[in-house]
Design goal:
- The complex is a heterodimer.
- By secondary structure, chain A is mainly β.
- Chain A is built from no helices and nine strands.
- Chain A has a five-stranded mixed β-sheet, with no helix packed on it. A four-stranded antiparallel β-sheet of chain A has the order 2-7-6-5, with no helix packed on it.
- In chain A, strand 6 and strand 7 form a beta hairpin.
- Chain A is globular.
- Helices cover 0% and strands 56% of the residues of chain B.
- In chain B, strands 2, 4, 5, 6, 9, 10 and 11 form a seven-stranded mixed β-sheet that branches. In chain B, strands 1-3-8-7 form a four-stranded antiparallel β-sheet, with no helix packed on it.
- Chain B is globular.
- The chains are: A mainly beta, B mainly beta.
- Chains A and B meet through strand 3, strand 4 and strand 8 of A and strand 4, strand 5, strand 9 and strand 10 of B.
Chain lengths: 111, 115
Amino acid sequence: LAKTTQPISMDSYEGQEVNITCSHNNIATNDYITWYQQFPSQGPRFIIQGYKTKVTNEVASLFIPADRKSSTLSLPRVSLSDTAVYYCLVGPKGSARQLTFGSGTQLTVLP
Amino acid sequence: EPEVTQTPSHQVTQMGQEVILRCVPISNHLYFYWYRQILGQKVEFLVSFYNNEISEKSEIFDDQFSVERPDGSNFTLKIRSTKLEDSAMYFCASPSDQSSYNEQFFGPGTRLTVL
């Protein structure tokens, strides 16, 4: 499994755009990049998944450069309720293997 | 959004007692997973269950743990003789569909406290 590296923590203010970058230098050809969000005492929640270029949904955007060795989760105009831990995961989409979570990035949104 | 449910939400037990944690995963799925998260630590994989059998298990999932699907809908995790270090949040999860195992729906979790 490709190892991922992301910042331990980030602070932001309400209304700002937040970009969380994840490094995955050893990503394999058939690996996808998936991001999860976790609030305290809740299970992780899928946010977005992509393979290359840009993916956007109602919650976030995911930017993946051509070499795919990193990815950036972009949260537009964050609010206090976006305070959570964000995890970057890398792995094949069609494999039923378990998810492997790292330590994630603790995002704190300040008023 | 599909929903995974878990009961109880909080379980307090004495060390050495047996506990059974219950999950109702997304119906019509063949794969189910159990994860745990000790307070302040990473989410860790425990076991995956496919077609009524254990598919894969981690080194955490020792002989004290077992999983069952007793009635075709519920999915249970049993800890035979709890230890203090079993105190954690336990989550079950189902993939969204069989083409995207990376997208898993997690239940709200059971907080297990071993005294």
